[in-house]
Amino acid sequence: MERLMHVKPDMSYKEDAIAYINEHYEVGSAINGVGGLKRYLDDYEGWLEKLETDRHQVPNEEHVPAETYFLVRESDNRIVGMINIRLVLNERLQKRGGHIGYGIRPSERQKGYNKINLYLALKRCQELGIETVLLDCNKNNLGSSKTMQAFGGVLINEWYDEEDKKIDQRYSINVNEAIKNYQDIYEPFIVQKEGENECNRSKKLI
Ligand SMILES: CC(C)(COP(=O)(O)OP(=O)(O)OC[C@H]1O[C@@H](n2cnc3c(N)ncnc32)[C@H](O)[C@@H]1OP(=O)(O)O)[C@@H](O)C(=O)NCCC(=O)NCCS
Fold first, then answer.
1. Separation CA 65–CA 87 (nearest Å)
2. Which of 29, 141, 182, 204 is 20 to 30 Å apart from 41, CA to CA?
3. Which residues are CB-contacts of 58 (< 8 A; sequence separation ≥ 6)?
4. Ligand 1 neighbourhood includes 106 CB (under 6 angstroms)
5. Number of structural domains found in the chain
6. Domain, as residue range, for 162
């Protein structure tokens, strides 16, 4: 499989980021984990500013600090997915929403990319000291629930969402356990960060 990385959005991805959202509209797909990008298709620069505001947000019942990343394929620098990580949960997100929203562009699904997307996010959560990650999904969204289960996600509860008329589920993932148990599987598929120990790096990329 290809190697992937999380990239902080910048101007160089403007065209592909807009194409990423439009691809969802073309096939009528749900959009998730894009940090509000779909509302900024005519103002990408404004979206980048919004992401900076999001990062430094003081938590309250309306907003929480959050980070948004592109999941980028190393071989062609294409955005294949996106993810939004809430660094703190307010009461509302404790109940519904959780820490992470994610998605993969329609033409790149079912290649195992979202598992890499979540693995990279779990590593970021570990860096930030988040020990337990909460995630929600529709019960019939097997791509999402299986992604969580791939990291030992435990189903905590289910409820009927009146608005969507669907059953939603909440999963919990123990961040340290997930990384310890699954790093051998996923490390070979991520592009290591600059400055990482070269010995580790060559070992991981074999
Ligand atoms: C859900 C989503 C992120 C999955 O992305 P993906 O890259 O296709 O997922 P992966 O290829 O990493 O697959 C993860 C697991 O789900 C399974 N899976 C993926 N799509 C599936 C589908 N449509 N039906 C059944 N299983 C599916 C894979 O087989 C894999 O299971 P495994 O670990 O047992 O092999 C993607 O479909 C998407 O972006 N959907 C729209 C947005 C969305 O729903 N986001 C989540 C909101 S909670």
1. 6
2. 141
3. 65
4. no
5. 1
6. 4-205
